[in-house]
Model the fold of this input.
Amino acid sequence: MATETTIRVVSCGELRAGDAGGSVCLRGWVNRRRDHGGLIFIDLRDRDGLTQLVFDPSSPDLPADVFATAERLRAEFVISVNANVRLRLPGTQKADLATGGIEGAVTALTILNESLTPPFVVAGDDDVDENVRLRYRYLDLRRPRMQRNLTVRHKIVKAMRDYFDARGFLEIETPNLIKSTPEGARDYLVPSRVHQGAFYALPQSPQLLKQILMIGGLGRYMQIARCFRDEDPRADRQPEFTQLDVEMTFVEEADVMAMMEGCVIDVWRTALGVSIATPIERLTYEDAIRRFGSDKPDLRFGLELTDVAQIVAGSDFPLFATLAAGAGNRIIALRYPGGAVLSRREFDALAETAKGFGAKGLPYLAFTADGLKGSIVKVVSPEIVAELQRYTAAQTGDALLFVGEAHALASDIAGRLRIEIAERLKLRDPKAFAFCWVYHFPLFERDAETGAITFSHHPFTAPGPGQEDLFDSDPLRVRAQHYDLVLNGYELGSGSIRNHKEAFQRKVFHRLGLDDATIEDRFGFFMEALRFGAPPHGGMALGLDRIVMLACGETSIRDVIAFPKNQLARDLMMDAPSSVPAAALRDLGLSINVKPQPAQL
Ligand code: ASP
Done:
Protein backbone atom coordinates (compact mmCIF):
# COMPACT_ATOMS: atom_id res chain seq x y z
CA MET A 1 0.00 0.00 0.00
CA ALA A 2 1.37 3.37 -0.98
CA THR A 3 1.74 5.59 2.04
CA GLU A 4 -0.39 8.66 1.80
CA THR A 5 2.56 10.99 1.76
CA THR A 6 4.17 9.51 -1.30
CA ILE A 7 1.39 10.60 -3.59
CA ARG A 8 -0.11 13.95 -4.40
CA VAL A 9 -2.54 15.24 -1.78
CA VAL A 10 -5.49 17.03 -3.38
CA SER A 11 -8.56 18.75 -2.07
CA CYS A 12 -12.04 17.43 -2.72
CA GLY A 13 -12.78 20.18 -5.24
CA GLU A 14 -9.61 19.97 -7.24
CA LEU A 15 -9.62 17.04 -9.66
CA ARG A 16 -10.56 17.44 -13.33
CA ALA A 17 -10.64 15.19 -16.39
CA GLY A 18 -6.97 16.03 -17.06
CA ASP A 19 -6.01 14.32 -13.79
CA ALA A 20 -7.33 10.94 -14.96
CA GLY A 21 -4.65 8.26 -14.82
CA GLY A 22 -2.93 9.70 -11.74
CA SER A 23 -2.98 8.55 -8.13
CA VAL A 24 -3.91 10.94 -5.35
CA CYS A 25 -4.59 11.15 -1.66
CA LEU A 26 -7.82 12.82 -0.46
CA ARG A 27 -9.00 13.63 3.05
CA GLY A 28 -12.36 14.81 4.21
CA TRP A 29 -15.77 13.95 5.57
CA VAL A 30 -18.18 11.33 4.25
CA ASN A 31 -20.90 13.48 2.75
CA ARG A 32 -23.06 10.59 1.56
CA ARG A 33 -22.63 6.87 1.13
CA ARG A 34 -24.50 4.90 -1.50
CA ASP A 35 -24.31 1.14 -2.04
CA HIS A 36 -25.00 0.23 -5.59
CA GLY A 37 -24.65 -3.06 -7.46
CA GLY A 38 -22.01 -4.39 -5.06
CA LEU A 39 -20.05 -1.13 -5.18
CA ILE A 40 -19.83 1.48 -2.45
CA PHE A 41 -19.90 5.11 -3.52
CA ILE A 42 -18.80 7.86 -1.16
CA ASP A 43 -19.02 11.58 -1.80
CA LEU A 44 -16.04 12.95 0.05
CA ARG A 45 -16.33 16.56 1.20
CA ASP A 46 -14.00 19.30 2.35
CA ARG A 47 -14.20 23.12 2.14
CA ASP A 48 -13.21 22.97 -1.49
CA GLY A 49 -15.91 20.65 -2.82
CA LEU A 50 -16.97 17.05 -3.33
CA THR A 51 -15.25 14.11 -5.00
CA GLN A 52 -16.93 10.81 -5.77
CA LEU A 53 -15.03 7.78 -4.51
CA VAL A 54 -15.72 4.21 -5.60
CA PHE A 55 -14.91 1.09 -3.64
CA ASP A 56 -14.99 -1.75 -6.20
CA PRO A 57 -14.55 -5.19 -4.59
CA SER A 58 -13.83 -6.76 -7.98
CA SER A 59 -10.89 -4.45 -8.61
CA PRO A 60 -7.46 -6.00 -8.12
CA ASP A 61 -6.31 -2.62 -6.69
CA LEU A 62 -8.74 -2.76 -3.78
CA PRO A 63 -7.62 -5.01 -0.93
CA ALA A 64 -10.51 -6.99 0.61
CA ASP A 65 -9.97 -5.54 4.08
CA VAL A 66 -10.36 -2.02 2.68
CA PHE A 67 -13.76 -2.91 1.29
CA ALA A 68 -14.74 -4.32 4.67
CA THR A 69 -13.67 -1.05 6.34
CA ALA A 70 -15.61 0.92 3.73
CA GLU A 71 -18.75 -0.91 4.77
CA ARG A 72 -18.42 0.69 8.21
CA LEU A 73 -18.38 4.22 6.84
CA ARG A 74 -21.24 6.51 7.83
CA ALA A 75 -22.03 10.17 7.23
CA GLU A 76 -19.49 12.56 8.77
CA PHE A 77 -16.78 9.97 9.37
CA VAL A 78 -13.39 11.54 8.64
CA ILE A 79 -11.26 9.53 6.27
CA SER A 80 -8.11 9.54 4.22
CA VAL A 81 -7.97 7.59 0.97
CA ASN A 82 -5.59 6.84 -1.84
CA ALA A 83 -7.33 6.59 -5.16
CA ASN A 84 -6.69 6.21 -8.86
CA VAL A 85 -8.34 9.04 -10.74
CA ARG A 86 -10.42 7.93 -13.70
CA LEU A 87 -13.01 9.41 -16.02
CA ARG A 88 -16.58 8.69 -15.13
CA LEU A 89 -18.49 6.53 -17.56
CA PRO A 90 -20.54 8.46 -20.11
CA GLY A 91 -23.96 9.19 -18.67
CA THR A 92 -22.71 9.26 -15.08
CA GLN A 93 -20.92 12.60 -15.31
CA LYS A 94 -22.27 15.51 -13.31
CA ALA A 95 -22.17 18.82 -15.10
CA ASP A 96 -23.15 20.83 -12.00
CA LEU A 97 -20.19 19.56 -9.99
CA ALA A 98 -16.67 20.86 -10.67
CA THR A 99 -15.27 17.35 -10.18
CA GLY A 100 -18.25 15.75 -11.93
CA GLY A 101 -16.19 14.35 -14.84
CA ILE A 102 -14.01 12.10 -12.70
CA GLU A 103 -14.08 9.70 -9.77
CA GLY A 104 -11.49 8.15 -7.49
CA ALA A 105 -11.20 4.35 -7.47
CA VAL A 106 -10.03 3.75 -3.91
CA THR A 107 -6.93 1.67 -3.23
CA ALA A 108 -6.37 2.49 0.46
CA LEU A 109 -8.55 3.81 3.28
CA THR A 110 -7.93 5.04 6.81
CA ILE A 111 -10.73 6.07 9.12
CA LEU A 112 -9.28 9.07 10.93
CA ASN A 113 -12.32 9.49 13.14
CA GLU A 114 -15.85 8.29 13.48
CA SER A 115 -18.91 10.43 14.01
CA LEU A 116 -22.08 10.10 15.98
CA THR A 117 -25.19 10.20 13.84
CA PRO A 118 -25.64 13.94 13.18
CA PRO A 119 -28.89 15.55 14.37
CA PHE A 120 -29.47 16.81 10.83
CA VAL A 121 -28.20 15.81 7.42
CA VAL A 122 -25.11 17.91 6.78
CA ALA A 123 -25.22 17.03 3.09
CA GLY A 124 -28.80 18.19 2.63
CA ASP A 125 -30.00 21.71 2.08
CA ASP A 126 -33.25 21.09 3.91
CA ASP A 127 -34.31 23.73 6.39
CA VAL A 128 -33.06 22.83 9.82
CA ASP A 129 -34.39 24.54 12.92
CA GLU A 130 -32.01 27.40 13.66
CA ASN A 131 -31.59 26.56 17.31
CA VAL A 132 -30.45 23.06 16.33
CA ARG A 133 -28.04 24.56 13.80
CA LEU A 134 -26.59 26.84 16.46
CA ARG A 135 -26.41 24.11 19.10
CA TYR A 136 -24.33 21.97 16.69
CA ARG A 137 -22.68 24.87 14.91
CA TYR A 138 -19.62 22.80 13.95
CA LEU A 139 -21.88 20.57 11.85
CA ASP A 140 -23.71 23.54 10.40
CA LEU A 141 -20.37 25.11 9.51
CA ARG A 142 -19.58 22.09 7.34
CA ARG A 143 -22.51 22.90 5.05
CA PRO A 144 -21.79 24.70 1.77
CA ARG A 145 -23.91 27.71 2.65
CA MET A 146 -21.93 28.61 5.78
CA GLN A 147 -18.64 27.81 4.08
CA ARG A 148 -19.52 30.10 1.21
CA ASN A 149 -20.70 32.89 3.52
CA LEU A 150 -17.57 32.79 5.66
CA THR A 151 -15.43 32.75 2.52
CA VAL A 152 -17.20 35.86 1.23
CA ARG A 153 -16.77 37.45 4.65
CA HIS A 154 -13.03 36.80 4.54
CA LYS A 155 -12.76 38.26 1.04
CA ILE A 156 -14.66 41.37 2.03
CA VAL A 157 -12.48 41.96 5.09
CA LYS A 158 -9.35 41.42 3.03
CA ALA A 159 -10.56 43.83 0.35
CA MET A 160 -11.23 46.44 3.04
CA ARG A 161 -7.78 46.03 4.58
CA ASP A 162 -6.09 46.22 1.19
CA TYR A 163 -8.07 49.31 0.22
CA PHE A 164 -7.15 51.26 3.33
CA ASP A 165 -3.59 49.99 3.40
CA ALA A 166 -3.09 51.34 -0.12
CA ARG A 167 -4.26 54.75 1.09
CA GLY A 168 -1.95 55.12 4.05
CA PHE A 169 -4.28 53.97 6.82
CA LEU A 170 -2.89 52.12 9.81
CA GLU A 171 -4.86 49.27 11.33
CA ILE A 172 -4.67 49.89 15.05
CA GLU A 173 -6.25 47.72 17.73
CA THR A 174 -8.10 49.49 20.48
CA PRO A 175 -8.78 47.76 23.80
CA ASN A 176 -11.96 46.00 24.79
CA LEU A 177 -11.70 46.69 28.51
CA ILE A 178 -12.43 50.40 28.63
CA LYS A 179 -14.60 53.11 30.10
CA SER A 180 -18.02 53.64 28.59
CA THR A 181 -18.32 55.30 25.15
CA PRO A 182 -21.92 56.11 24.46
CA GLU A 183 -23.59 55.05 21.21
CA GLY A 184 -27.08 55.15 22.66
CA ALA A 185 -27.11 51.61 24.07
CA ARG A 186 -26.41 50.03 27.44
CA ASP A 187 -22.83 48.94 28.21
CA TYR A 188 -21.70 45.41 28.89
CA LEU A 189 -19.82 45.61 32.15
CA VAL A 190 -16.87 43.52 33.29
CA PRO A 191 -16.15 43.50 37.02
CA SER A 192 -12.57 44.07 38.05
CA ARG A 193 -11.09 41.58 40.51
CA VAL A 194 -8.05 43.70 41.18
CA HIS A 195 -10.12 46.82 41.83
CA GLN A 196 -13.12 45.33 43.54
CA GLY A 197 -16.36 47.19 43.06
CA ALA A 198 -15.08 48.83 39.86
CA PHE A 199 -16.07 47.84 36.34
CA TYR A 200 -14.73 48.05 32.84
CA ALA A 201 -17.18 48.66 30.03
CA LEU A 202 -16.87 46.80 26.75
CA PRO A 203 -16.78 49.29 23.87
CA GLN A 204 -20.07 50.08 22.16
CA SER A 205 -17.65 51.27 19.49
CA PRO A 206 -14.05 52.51 19.54
CA GLN A 207 -15.39 56.05 19.06
CA LEU A 208 -13.41 57.94 21.70
CA LEU A 209 -10.30 55.85 21.21
CA LYS A 210 -10.20 56.48 17.48
CA GLN A 211 -10.70 60.18 18.09
CA ILE A 212 -7.82 60.09 20.56
CA LEU A 213 -5.71 58.31 17.93
CA MET A 214 -6.32 61.38 15.74
CA ILE A 215 -5.32 63.66 18.61
CA GLY A 216 -2.30 61.36 18.90
CA GLY A 217 -1.30 62.30 15.37
CA LEU A 218 -1.89 58.92 13.69
CA GLY A 219 -3.71 60.63 10.84
CA ARG A 220 -5.53 57.74 9.18
CA TYR A 221 -6.87 54.82 11.23
CA MET A 222 -8.92 51.77 10.39
CA GLN A 223 -9.87 48.67 12.33
CA ILE A 224 -12.08 45.65 11.92
CA ALA A 225 -13.47 46.29 15.38
CA ARG A 226 -15.67 44.25 17.67
CA CYS A 227 -18.41 46.26 19.38
CA PHE A 228 -20.69 45.30 22.25
CA ARG A 229 -24.13 46.73 22.93
CA ASP A 230 -26.40 45.41 25.64
CA GLU A 231 -29.76 46.02 24.05
CA ASP A 232 -32.94 44.03 24.29
CA PRO A 233 -32.68 41.07 21.95
CA ARG A 234 -34.37 41.61 18.62
CA ALA A 235 -34.61 39.40 15.58
CA ASP A 236 -31.52 40.65 13.85
CA ARG A 237 -29.47 42.14 16.63
CA GLN A 238 -26.31 40.62 18.05
CA PRO A 239 -24.91 41.66 21.43
CA GLU A 240 -21.49 41.71 19.81
CA PHE A 241 -20.90 42.61 16.21
CA THR A 242 -18.11 43.72 13.93
CA GLN A 243 -17.65 47.01 12.18
CA LEU A 244 -15.19 48.54 9.80
CA ASP A 245 -14.13 51.55 11.83
CA VAL A 246 -12.38 54.50 10.20
CA GLU A 247 -11.13 57.92 11.31
CA MET A 248 -9.13 60.63 9.51
CA THR A 249 -7.68 64.02 10.35
CA PHE A 250 -8.09 67.28 8.42
CA VAL A 251 -11.17 66.16 6.56
CA GLU A 252 -14.59 67.48 5.74
CA GLU A 253 -17.78 65.50 5.25
CA ALA A 254 -17.23 65.04 1.52
CA ASP A 255 -13.72 63.63 2.09
CA VAL A 256 -14.87 60.89 4.42
CA MET A 257 -17.84 60.08 2.19
CA ALA A 258 -15.59 59.81 -0.87
CA MET A 259 -13.13 57.57 0.99
CA MET A 260 -15.85 55.24 2.24
CA GLU A 261 -17.62 55.22 -1.11
CA GLY A 262 -14.38 54.19 -2.77
CA CYS A 263 -14.03 51.37 -0.25
CA VAL A 264 -17.50 50.00 -0.88
CA ILE A 265 -17.05 50.16 -4.65
CA ASP A 266 -13.71 48.41 -4.34
CA VAL A 267 -15.03 45.73 -2.01
CA TRP A 268 -17.97 44.95 -4.26
CA ARG A 269 -15.69 44.77 -7.28
CA THR A 270 -12.87 42.71 -5.82
CA ALA A 271 -14.75 40.50 -3.38
CA LEU A 272 -18.00 40.05 -5.27
CA GLY A 273 -17.19 40.90 -8.88
CA VAL A 274 -20.01 43.45 -8.97
CA SER A 275 -19.59 46.98 -10.25
CA ILE A 276 -21.62 49.63 -8.50
CA ALA A 277 -22.94 52.60 -10.46
CA THR A 278 -21.13 55.76 -9.37
CA PRO A 279 -21.33 58.29 -7.97
CA ILE A 280 -23.57 56.93 -5.27
CA GLU A 281 -26.69 59.07 -5.01
CA ARG A 282 -26.68 61.60 -2.17
CA LEU A 283 -29.88 62.65 -0.44
CA THR A 284 -30.28 65.09 2.38
CA TYR A 285 -32.16 63.69 5.36
CA GLU A 286 -35.00 66.04 4.58
CA ASP A 287 -35.26 64.86 0.97
CA ALA A 288 -35.08 61.22 1.99
CA ILE A 289 -37.99 61.67 4.38
CA ARG A 290 -39.95 63.79 1.91
CA ARG A 291 -39.50 61.48 -1.07
CA PHE A 292 -39.32 58.06 0.55
CA GLY A 293 -40.62 58.45 4.10
CA SER A 294 -37.44 56.95 5.52
CA ASP A 295 -33.89 57.94 6.41
CA LYS A 296 -32.77 54.62 4.93
CA PRO A 297 -34.65 54.54 1.66
CA ASP A 298 -34.69 51.48 -0.54
CA LEU A 299 -33.83 52.86 -3.97
CA ARG A 300 -34.26 49.62 -5.89
CA PHE A 301 -37.64 50.97 -6.94
CA GLY A 302 -39.37 54.35 -7.32
CA LEU A 303 -42.86 54.76 -5.86
CA GLU A 304 -41.97 58.16 -4.43
CA LEU A 305 -44.35 59.87 -2.02
CA THR A 306 -46.24 62.88 -3.35
CA ASP A 307 -47.28 65.76 -1.10
CA VAL A 308 -50.83 66.67 -1.96
CA ALA A 309 -51.98 68.88 0.93
CA GLN A 310 -52.32 71.88 -1.36
CA ILE A 311 -54.36 69.92 -3.89
CA VAL A 312 -56.78 68.28 -1.50
CA ALA A 313 -57.13 71.20 0.92
CA GLY A 314 -60.27 72.34 -0.86
CA SER A 315 -61.96 68.95 -0.97
CA ASP A 316 -65.14 68.11 0.92
CA PHE A 317 -63.26 65.50 2.92
CA PRO A 318 -63.09 67.08 6.39
CA LEU A 319 -59.93 65.22 7.42
CA PHE A 320 -57.96 66.61 4.49
CA ALA A 321 -59.20 70.14 5.13
CA THR A 322 -58.26 70.00 8.82
CA LEU A 323 -54.86 68.44 8.19
CA ALA A 324 -54.02 70.80 5.37
CA ALA A 325 -54.69 73.73 7.66
CA GLY A 326 -52.18 72.59 10.30
CA ALA A 327 -48.58 73.60 9.66
CA GLY A 328 -46.92 70.50 11.12
CA ASN A 329 -48.88 67.99 9.03
CA ARG A 330 -48.38 66.14 5.80
CA ILE A 331 -50.89 64.67 3.39
CA ILE A 332 -49.20 62.13 1.16
CA ALA A 333 -50.51 60.31 -1.87
CA LEU A 334 -48.87 57.01 -2.62
CA ARG A 335 -49.36 55.47 -6.03
CA TYR A 336 -50.10 51.77 -6.05
CA PRO A 337 -49.40 50.63 -9.64
CA GLY A 338 -52.10 48.22 -10.76
CA GLY A 339 -53.82 48.66 -7.39
CA ALA A 340 -57.22 49.50 -8.89
CA VAL A 341 -58.04 45.80 -9.20
CA LEU A 342 -57.97 45.33 -5.42
CA SER A 343 -61.32 44.44 -3.88
CA ARG A 344 -62.92 46.54 -1.20
CA ARG A 345 -61.89 43.90 1.31
CA GLU A 346 -58.29 44.03 0.14
CA PHE A 347 -58.25 47.82 0.55
CA ASP A 348 -59.69 47.32 4.05
CA ALA A 349 -56.88 44.88 4.81
CA LEU A 350 -54.34 47.41 3.57
CA ALA A 351 -55.93 50.00 5.85
CA GLU A 352 -55.48 47.58 8.75
CA THR A 353 -51.80 47.28 7.83
CA ALA A 354 -51.55 51.08 7.81
CA LYS A 355 -53.22 51.21 11.21
CA GLY A 356 -50.57 48.83 12.46
CA PHE A 357 -48.06 51.49 11.35
CA GLY A 358 -49.97 54.13 13.35
CA ALA A 359 -52.42 55.50 10.76
CA LYS A 360 -55.98 56.38 11.67
CA GLY A 361 -57.27 55.14 8.32
CA LEU A 362 -56.29 54.83 4.68
CA PRO A 363 -58.55 56.72 2.26
CA TYR A 364 -58.04 55.66 -1.34
CA LEU A 365 -59.02 56.27 -4.93
CA ALA A 366 -58.96 53.56 -7.61
CA PHE A 367 -58.70 54.50 -11.28
CA THR A 368 -60.51 51.49 -12.73
CA ALA A 369 -61.33 50.96 -16.39
CA ASP A 370 -64.96 51.58 -15.41
CA GLY A 371 -64.19 54.93 -13.84
CA LEU A 372 -63.14 56.27 -10.47
CA LYS A 373 -63.92 54.27 -7.34
CA GLY A 374 -62.74 54.41 -3.77
CA SER A 375 -63.59 55.43 -0.26
CA ILE A 376 -63.39 59.18 -0.91
CA VAL A 377 -64.72 59.27 -4.45
CA LYS A 378 -67.76 61.30 -3.40
CA VAL A 379 -65.86 64.04 -1.61
CA VAL A 380 -63.25 64.96 -4.18
CA SER A 381 -64.18 67.04 -7.20
CA PRO A 382 -63.18 66.05 -10.76
CA GLU A 383 -60.75 69.01 -10.77
CA ILE A 384 -58.99 67.71 -7.69
CA VAL A 385 -58.88 64.21 -9.14
CA ALA A 386 -57.33 65.56 -12.34
CA GLU A 387 -54.70 67.45 -10.32
CA LEU A 388 -53.93 64.37 -8.23
CA GLN A 389 -53.52 62.31 -11.34
CA ARG A 390 -51.23 64.89 -12.86
CA TYR A 391 -49.01 65.12 -9.78
CA THR A 392 -48.79 61.42 -9.03
CA ALA A 393 -48.81 60.20 -12.66
CA ALA A 394 -51.50 57.70 -11.68
CA GLN A 395 -52.74 55.76 -14.72
CA THR A 396 -55.89 53.81 -15.33
CA GLY A 397 -55.44 50.64 -13.33
CA ASP A 398 -53.59 52.37 -10.48
CA ALA A 399 -54.81 53.29 -7.03
CA LEU A 400 -53.81 56.20 -4.80
CA LEU A 401 -53.51 55.70 -1.06
CA PHE A 402 -53.68 58.77 1.18
CA VAL A 403 -51.80 59.19 4.41
CA GLY A 404 -52.48 62.31 6.45
CA GLU A 405 -50.94 62.77 9.90
CA ALA A 406 -48.43 64.88 11.77
CA HIS A 407 -45.35 65.26 9.58
CA ALA A 408 -43.04 62.60 11.03
CA LEU A 409 -45.79 60.03 11.51
CA ALA A 410 -47.23 60.56 8.02
CA SER A 411 -43.78 60.13 6.48
CA ASP A 412 -43.12 56.99 8.45
CA ILE A 413 -46.46 55.37 7.63
CA ALA A 414 -46.22 56.22 3.93
CA GLY A 415 -42.59 55.02 3.87
CA ARG A 416 -43.63 51.67 5.28
CA LEU A 417 -46.60 51.37 2.92
CA ARG A 418 -44.22 52.09 0.06
CA ILE A 419 -42.19 49.03 1.09
CA GLU A 420 -45.36 46.99 1.51
CA ILE A 421 -46.46 47.82 -2.04
CA ALA A 422 -43.00 47.08 -3.43
CA GLU A 423 -43.04 43.74 -1.67
CA ARG A 424 -46.43 42.86 -3.15
CA LEU A 425 -45.32 43.90 -6.63
CA LYS A 426 -41.93 42.16 -6.22
CA LEU A 427 -40.06 45.36 -7.00
CA ARG A 428 -37.24 44.58 -4.58
CA ASP A 429 -34.83 42.69 -6.80
CA PRO A 430 -32.77 40.54 -4.41
CA LYS A 431 -29.79 40.69 -6.78
CA ALA A 432 -29.73 44.49 -7.12
CA PHE A 433 -27.52 46.72 -4.97
CA ALA A 434 -28.95 50.22 -4.64
CA PHE A 435 -26.67 52.36 -2.49
CA CYS A 436 -27.31 55.91 -1.37
CA TRP A 437 -25.95 58.43 1.06
CA VAL A 438 -28.24 60.23 3.46
CA TYR A 439 -26.68 63.29 5.07
CA HIS A 440 -27.38 66.48 7.00
CA PHE A 441 -29.25 64.62 9.71
CA PRO A 442 -30.63 66.60 12.63
CA LEU A 443 -28.01 66.91 15.37
CA PHE A 444 -30.55 66.34 18.12
CA GLU A 445 -33.87 64.59 18.45
CA ARG A 446 -36.44 64.21 21.17
CA ASP A 447 -36.27 61.04 23.19
CA ALA A 448 -39.55 59.25 22.45
CA GLU A 449 -39.98 58.21 26.07
CA THR A 450 -38.69 61.10 28.15
CA GLY A 451 -39.23 63.96 25.70
CA ALA A 452 -35.73 65.22 26.57
CA ILE A 453 -33.30 66.38 23.88
CA THR A 454 -30.88 63.67 22.96
CA PHE A 455 -28.27 63.17 20.23
CA SER A 456 -29.26 61.55 16.93
CA HIS A 457 -25.89 59.93 16.20
CA HIS A 458 -23.59 60.36 19.19
CA PRO A 459 -22.57 63.37 21.26
CA PHE A 460 -19.26 63.87 19.42
CA THR A 461 -20.87 64.83 16.10
CA ALA A 462 -20.34 68.40 14.92
CA PRO A 463 -23.12 70.68 13.65
CA GLY A 464 -22.96 71.92 10.08
CA PRO A 465 -21.12 75.17 9.34
CA GLY A 466 -23.17 78.20 10.36
CA GLN A 467 -25.59 76.11 12.40
CA GLU A 468 -24.18 77.12 15.76
CA ASP A 469 -26.61 80.05 16.05
CA LEU A 470 -29.59 77.73 16.02
CA PHE A 471 -27.95 75.71 18.71
CA ASP A 472 -29.49 77.71 21.54
CA SER A 473 -32.57 79.11 19.83
CA ASP A 474 -33.90 76.01 18.06
CA PRO A 475 -31.70 72.97 18.73
CA LEU A 476 -33.97 70.49 16.98
CA ARG A 477 -33.41 72.35 13.72
CA VAL A 478 -29.62 72.12 13.85
CA ARG A 479 -28.28 69.94 11.04
CA ALA A 480 -25.27 67.81 11.76
CA GLN A 481 -22.25 66.88 9.69
CA HIS A 482 -23.53 63.34 9.92
CA TYR A 483 -23.91 60.94 7.02
CA ASP A 484 -25.24 57.41 6.65
CA LEU A 485 -24.53 54.91 3.91
CA VAL A 486 -27.66 53.01 2.95
CA LEU A 487 -28.06 49.85 0.87
CA ASN A 488 -31.41 48.40 -0.23
CA GLY A 489 -33.20 50.01 2.71
CA TYR A 490 -30.61 49.00 5.33
CA GLU A 491 -28.34 51.43 7.13
CA LEU A 492 -24.84 50.12 6.50
CA GLY A 493 -23.22 52.61 8.80
CA SER A 494 -22.91 56.14 10.07
CA GLY A 495 -20.22 58.68 10.45
CA SER A 496 -19.64 62.31 11.17
CA ILE A 497 -17.24 65.17 11.49
CA ARG A 498 -16.45 65.53 15.20
CA ASN A 499 -16.29 68.44 17.59
CA HIS A 500 -12.58 69.02 17.97
CA LYS A 501 -12.76 72.07 20.24
CA GLU A 502 -13.21 71.36 23.90
CA ALA A 503 -15.44 74.36 24.56
CA PHE A 504 -17.90 73.38 21.90
CA GLN A 505 -17.93 69.72 22.93
CA ARG A 506 -18.75 70.92 26.45
CA LYS A 507 -21.57 73.02 25.06
CA VAL A 508 -23.05 69.95 23.37
CA PHE A 509 -22.85 67.99 26.59
CA HIS A 510 -24.57 70.85 28.42
CA ARG A 511 -27.28 70.88 25.79
CA LEU A 512 -27.76 67.17 26.41
CA GLY A 513 -28.27 67.92 30.09
CA LEU A 514 -24.86 66.84 31.45
CA ASP A 515 -23.37 69.09 34.11
CA ASP A 516 -19.64 69.73 34.44
CA ALA A 517 -19.21 67.20 37.22
CA THR A 518 -20.78 64.45 35.12
CA ILE A 519 -18.74 65.46 32.08
CA GLU A 520 -15.60 65.28 34.18
CA ASP A 521 -16.51 61.91 35.61
CA ARG A 522 -17.44 60.25 32.35
CA PHE A 523 -15.38 62.06 29.74
CA GLY A 524 -12.70 63.94 31.69
CA PHE A 525 -9.87 62.12 29.91
CA PHE A 526 -11.31 62.98 26.53
CA MET A 527 -12.03 66.61 27.35
CA GLU A 528 -8.47 66.97 28.52
CA ALA A 529 -7.14 65.42 25.30
CA LEU A 530 -9.18 67.89 23.25
CA ARG A 531 -7.34 70.73 24.99
CA PHE A 532 -3.94 69.56 23.73
CA GLY A 533 -4.11 70.53 20.08
CA ALA A 534 -6.84 68.24 18.77
CA PRO A 535 -6.93 68.46 14.96
CA PRO A 536 -10.17 68.63 12.97
CA HIS A 537 -11.22 65.06 12.27
CA GLY A 538 -14.05 62.80 11.21
CA GLY A 539 -14.79 59.23 10.32
CA MET A 540 -17.31 56.51 9.93
CA ALA A 541 -18.12 52.92 10.76
CA LEU A 542 -19.79 50.33 8.51
CA GLY A 543 -21.50 47.25 9.93
CA LEU A 544 -19.52 44.32 8.59
CA ASP A 545 -22.08 41.66 9.44
CA ARG A 546 -24.79 43.49 7.56
CA ILE A 547 -22.56 44.12 4.55
CA VAL A 548 -21.68 40.45 4.32
CA MET A 549 -25.32 39.48 4.82
CA LEU A 550 -26.46 41.64 1.91
CA ALA A 551 -23.53 40.58 -0.24
CA CYS A 552 -24.40 36.91 0.36
CA GLY A 553 -28.09 37.44 -0.30
CA GLU A 554 -28.90 36.29 3.24
CA THR A 555 -31.62 37.78 5.40
CA SER A 556 -30.10 37.16 8.83
CA ILE A 557 -26.70 38.30 10.08
CA ARG A 558 -26.49 35.06 12.07
CA ASP A 559 -25.86 33.28 8.79
CA VAL A 560 -22.67 35.23 8.15
CA ILE A 561 -21.20 35.01 11.67
CA ALA A 562 -19.36 31.84 12.62
CA PHE A 563 -20.61 31.71 16.20
CA PRO A 564 -23.57 34.03 16.63
CA LYS A 565 -25.86 34.32 19.63
CA ASN A 566 -29.45 33.30 19.01
CA GLN A 567 -32.40 35.68 19.03
CA LEU A 568 -32.40 35.67 22.84
CA ALA A 569 -28.71 36.60 22.98
CA ARG A 570 -27.63 33.09 24.03
CA ASP A 571 -24.76 31.02 22.70
CA LEU A 572 -26.47 27.65 22.42
CA MET A 573 -23.33 25.71 21.64
CA MET A 574 -21.29 26.90 24.62
CA ASP A 575 -24.34 27.54 26.78
CA ALA A 576 -23.55 31.16 27.58
CA PRO A 577 -24.33 33.18 29.53
CA SER A 578 -24.22 30.76 32.43
CA SER A 579 -23.77 30.87 36.18
CA VAL A 580 -20.26 30.89 37.64
CA PRO A 581 -18.85 29.15 40.73
CA ALA A 582 -19.41 30.95 44.02
CA ALA A 583 -15.65 31.30 44.44
CA ALA A 584 -15.39 33.33 41.23
CA LEU A 585 -17.97 35.75 42.56
CA ARG A 586 -16.20 35.98 45.89
CA ASP A 587 -12.96 36.87 44.10
CA LEU A 588 -14.75 39.70 42.38
CA GLY A 589 -16.43 40.90 45.55
CA LEU A 590 -19.85 40.30 43.98
CA SER A 591 -22.94 38.68 45.27
CA ILE A 592 -25.99 37.77 43.23
CA ASN A 593 -29.37 38.65 44.56
CA VAL A 594 -31.61 37.37 41.83
CA LYS A 595 -32.77 33.80 41.45
CA PRO A 596 -31.05 32.14 38.50
CA GLN A 597 -33.54 31.93 35.64
CA PRO A 598 -34.18 28.61 33.97
CA ALA A 599 -32.24 28.48 30.73
CA GLN A 600 -34.31 29.41 27.71
CA LEU A 601 -33.49 28.63 24.15
N1 ASP B 1 -18.95 55.24 16.32
C1 ASP B 1 -19.99 55.33 15.33
C2 ASP B 1 -20.86 54.10 15.36
O1 ASP B 1 -20.47 53.06 15.89
C3 ASP B 1 -19.46 55.49 13.95
C4 ASP B 1 -18.74 56.77 13.75
O2 ASP B 1 -19.28 57.86 14.04
O3 ASP B 1 -17.61 56.71 13.25
O4 ASP B 1 -21.95 54.11 14.82
Observations:
- The chain has three domains: 8-113, 147-283+436-561, 301-427.
- The first strand starts at residue 8 and ends at 10.
